[in-house]
From TrEMBL:
The chain crosses the membrane at residues 21-42, 77-98, 110-130, 136-158, 170-194, 200-221, 286-308, 324-344, 351-373, 379-406, 418-441, 447-468. It catalyses: D-fructose(out) = D-fructose(in). GO terms for biological process: D-glucose import; dehydroascorbic acid transport; fructose import across plasma membrane. InterPro entries: GLUT, MFS_dom, MFS_sugar_transport-like, MFS_trans_sf, Sugar/inositol_transpt, Sugar_transporter_CS. CDD domains: MFS_GLUT_Class2. This is Solute carrier family 2, facilitated glucose transporter member 5. It comes from Mesembrinibis cayennensis. One of its GO terms (cellular component) is sarcolemma. Pfam families: Sugar_tr. The gene is Slc2a5. Residues 497-519 are annotated as: Disordered. It comes from the Eukaryota. GO terms for molecular function: D-glucose transmembrane transporter activity; fructose transmembrane transporter activity. Belongs to the major facilitator superfamily. Sugar transporter (TC 2.A.1.1) family. Glucose transporter subfamily. Residues 29-472 form the Major facilitator superfamily (MFS) profile domain.
């Protein structure tokens, strides 16, 4: 009992002392999120504004080569390839997460990843001069690979570096930069800036600049301490990295917690994706991230953005001003994600997930009603605008940022890369699927397609309510213990493993002490 009391005391002490956002931690969060996550967002929306000018370029190039204009069906195919190759590349990028982060480290992977972005930026920026549209489609795949890696590695890198009481807030920072990237692309894509016949190659090429900045600055920052200690076995480097990140010398508590995590995982070794999928002790964690990632992408966020222009036009916004409305929606997205950074540690992850998906669910249902009645009831078009805004708020506070935070928190070091690979692949595959299927859904169901999104949000809420635990302010080992109870197997297995592991001469009490305090 005394042991537990001592433990409680030390964790109270460490909570008070660990909660500091040091300058180094803030800088590494900003540089890695700006250099990587920002471009994910930027490339999501960068081709929306200049689409007509880019399609003209495709047409002219084809005419220049063949002497006949392009068939409209072929042009539609080329354009849908230009759009959909990005999420497909993202899927391939997610498949590269596991080998890269285990062999090159988290920071190393982010640095290597910049090569993809800079290469794609040069190709896209010079495509008009080279008179080739194939290069744009190829570059979209390369940018997708870049974004697939970035969207998984940045949350992992920052989550492993953060103290437990800032992990949620820092974990939302990559999503904040994704929304910022979307907003910057929307602003630069205005007709008066770069969204015109002359400016679009520059607009596409600008994506290389954040990568170049990251490539120059990130090498001066430390690697993830957990990676250094648990995967590289280098305690001295891990201690130095932690001392720099925390801004003080006494990091023994955190080193000790990492050692415990390392010890409990020694038996299991590194998880590949296959072993992760078949290991019973991580079953509910795996199902949870798959459900949250599917919920995040299949809840209709792309569809709402797609419909937004039309919804505003039907409410009487002039078609030439719709692009400014799109920018304002992007701004709301950024502001609400910024709010999530500040409230995720006080309210917790569960509340934000439930509230976020709840708002999305209600606004999809009301939006279906409003879109169907707007021909007969004049004020319904304004209600549909409110629904779009409420939906964006819901997605920005919960559905978008929190699932990536949860992957970091629900898995220990050895299974985390494989978990990100699975979660990231689901994220990008669902993104790709919605892009392909939505146009057909919209043609067949019209505004009723939002009812499908409403049902998906509802199913996700029910799952989160019953299964997903609160992970706020807990160490990775504590979260692992909560999930172990749900998996119903791990506690006993671990206890046996640890008893075997800690056999000391005549140490029966020693064994029991370890298993009771660690489990």
């Amino acid at each position: 009992m005394k042991l537990k009391g001592e433990k409680q005391e030390s964790s109270d002490y460490s909570e008070g002392s660990k909660g500091k956002m040091t300058l180094l931690l803030a800088l590494v969060s900003l540089i890695s999120a700006f250099g990587s996550s920002f471009q994910y967002g930027y490339n999501v929306s960068v081709i929306n504004s200049p689409a007509p000018y880019m399609q003209d370029f495709y047409n002219q190039t084809y005419f220049h080569r063949n002497g006949v204009p392009m068939d409209s069906g072929f042009q539609t195919l080329l354009w849908s390839l230009t759009v959909s190759m990005y999420p497909l590349g993202g899927f391939f990028g997610s498949l590269m997460v596991w080998p890269l982060v285990n062999n090159c480290g988290r920071k190393g992977t982010l640095l290597i990843n910049n090569i993809f972005s800079i290469a794609a930026a040069i190709l896209m920026g010079t495509s008009e001069l080279a008179k080739t549209f194939e290069v744009i489609i190829l570059s979209r795949v390369i940018m997708g690979i870049y974004a697939g890696l970035a969207s998984n590695v940045v949350p992992m890198f920052l989550g492993e570096m953060s103290p437990k009481n800032l992990r949620g807030a820092i974990g939302v920072v990559p999503q904040l930069f994704i929304t910022l990237g979307i907003l910057v692309a929307q602003i630069l894509g205005l007709n008066s800036i770069l969204g015109n016949a002359e400016g679009w190659p520059v607009l596409l090429g600008l994506t290389g600049i954040p990568s170049l900045i990251q490539l120059l600055i990130l090498p001066f920052f430390p690697e993830s301490p957990r990676y250094l200690l648990i995967q590289k076995g280098n305690e001295e480097q891990a201690r130095q990295a932690l001392q720099k990140l925390r801004g003080w010398d006494d990091v023994d508590d955190e080193i000790e917690e990492m050692r415990k995590e390392d010890q409990s995982e020694k038996e299991e070794g590194h998880f590949s994706v296959l072993s992760l999928c078949t290991f019973r002790g991580l079953r509910w964690q795996l199902i949870s991230i798959i459900v949250m990632m599917m919920g995040q992408q299949l809840s209709g966020v792309n569809a709402v953005f797609y419909y937004a222009d039309r919804i505003f036009q039907s409410a009487g916004v002039d078609s030439s001003n719709v692009q400014y409305v799109t920018v304002s929606i992007g701004a709301i997205n950024v502001v609400m994600t910024l709010l999530a950074v500040f409230i995720v540690e006080s309210l917790g992850r569960r509340i934000l997930l439930l509230a976020g998906f709840g708002l999305c669910c209600v606004s999809c249902a009301v939006l279906t009603l409003a879109l169907n009645l707007q021909a007969t009831v004049s004020w319904m078009s304004y209600l549909s605008i409110v629904c779009v805004i409420v939906y964006i708020i819901g997605h920005a506070i919960g559905a978008s940022p929190i699932p990536f935070v949860m992957i970091t928190e629900m898995f220990l070091q050895s299974s985390r890369p494989a978990a990100f690979m699975v979660g990231g692949s689901v994220h990008w595959l669902c993104n790709f699927t919605v892009g392909l299927v939505f146009l057909y859904m919209e043609a067949g169901l019209g505004s009723y397609s939002f009812l499908i999104f409403c049902a998906i949000c509802l199913a996700t809420i029910v799952y989160i309510f019953f299964i997903v635990p609160e992970t706020k302010n807990k160490t990775f080992m504590e979260i692992n213990r909560i999930m172990a109870k749900r998996n119903k197997v791990e506690i006993q297995e671990d206890e046996e493993k640890l008893e075997d592991f800690h056999t000391v001469p005549g140490g029966r009490a020693e064994k029991r002490e370890i298993s009771s305090s660690e489990l």
